[in-house]
Write a structure and sequence with these properties.
The chain starts with a helix and ends with a helix. It is globular and about 50 Å long. It has a single domain, classed as SGNH hydrolase (Rossmann fold), CATH 3.40.50.1110. The protein has a five-stranded parallel beta sheet, with helices on both faces. The protein has 258 residues and is α/β, with parallel strands linked by helices.
């Protein structure tokens, strides 16, 4: 009887401990956007094991040779919009490297900036970032925190004698079923505010501002319907508009940083 009582007490103690431990575990916050909640849940392993995703380009970077004499190497650095851009098709024969990673925010980009940009010794870096910060992919962010990350990336580049081209945040649209969630997560007012800050920062810091927004926006202030099926990621027609703008900006950056 005494043995049975001790077992019951032990089981009760375990149950109480389990309940207390469960009560202390913080619940994963929800955003109100099903797609964003699913994305965050799917990225837990990344956020805890390789926040900046340094492993993505580690082997590729190790195989990159130093720039040849006179080579105007450029790194396109950003999120999924850059990641999906087939640079060789739009800039044939150019020594342009793609270092985009889908879903990333500016704090993640800061973590990998040395490995994926500085150590590759480009003359120019074209940075396109911010839309996922607004959406909150890695958590809510204040505009001033995004702006601070922009400034940090630029300062790291300039300290390494790399000319900076800062791309505007692209507009988004809600014209298709696929676009609804992406659009709801990305405030047009915040996009405009970040772009104005970037434009002013580039002017004050003698950097090149690459204005994709004006070329892609429609008369309603949204991304033109035929440039992105999901309202966020440019299709071939969108990249066709962006490519010459990027090329002109790179040329300007090279001229200012011989």
């Amino acid at each position: 009887m005494r043995l049975l009582s001790q077992k019951l007490i032990g089981l009760a103690s375990i149950a109480i401990f389990t309940l207390c431990a469960s009560a202390q575990q913080p619940s994963i916050p929800t955003t109100g956007f099903a797609g964003l909640d699913q994305y965050r849940a799917s990225r837990i392993a990344v956020f805890t094991n390789d926040y900046g995703q340094l492993a993505r380009y580690r082997d590729v970077n190790a195989a990159v040779e130093p720039p040849a004499p006179g080579e105007n190497r450029v790194v396109f650095f950003g999120d999924s919009i850059t990641d999906s851009w087939k640079l060789a098709e739009y800039f044939p024969g150019k020594p342009y490297l793609n270092r985009g990673i889908g879903g990333q925010t500016t704090p993640q980009m800061l973590v990998r900036f040395r490995q994926d940009v500085i150590n590759l010794h480009p003359k120019v870096v074209v940075i396109l970032a911010g839309t996922n910060d607004i959406a909150g992919n890695t958590g809510p962010m204040l505009l001033e925190d995004i702006e601070a990350d922009y400034a940090s990336l630029a300062e790291l580049a300039r300290a390494s004698h790399i000319a900076v081209v800062y791309s505007s945040v692209l507009p988004v649209h809600n014209y298709t079923p696929k676009s609804q969630d992406f659009f709801a997560q990305r405030s047009t007012a915040k996009i405009l505010a970040l772009n104005q800050w970037l434009k002013d920062y580039c002017a004050a810091s003698h950097l090149v501002y690459l204005d994709y927004f004006t070329a892609l926006v429609d008369d309603k202030g949204l991304l033109k319907r035929d440039l992105a099926e999901d309202g966020l990621h440019p299709n071939a027609a969108g990249f066709k508009i962006m490519a010459p703008l990027a090329e002109a900006a790179i040329g300007k950056a090279l001229a200012s940083n011989p």
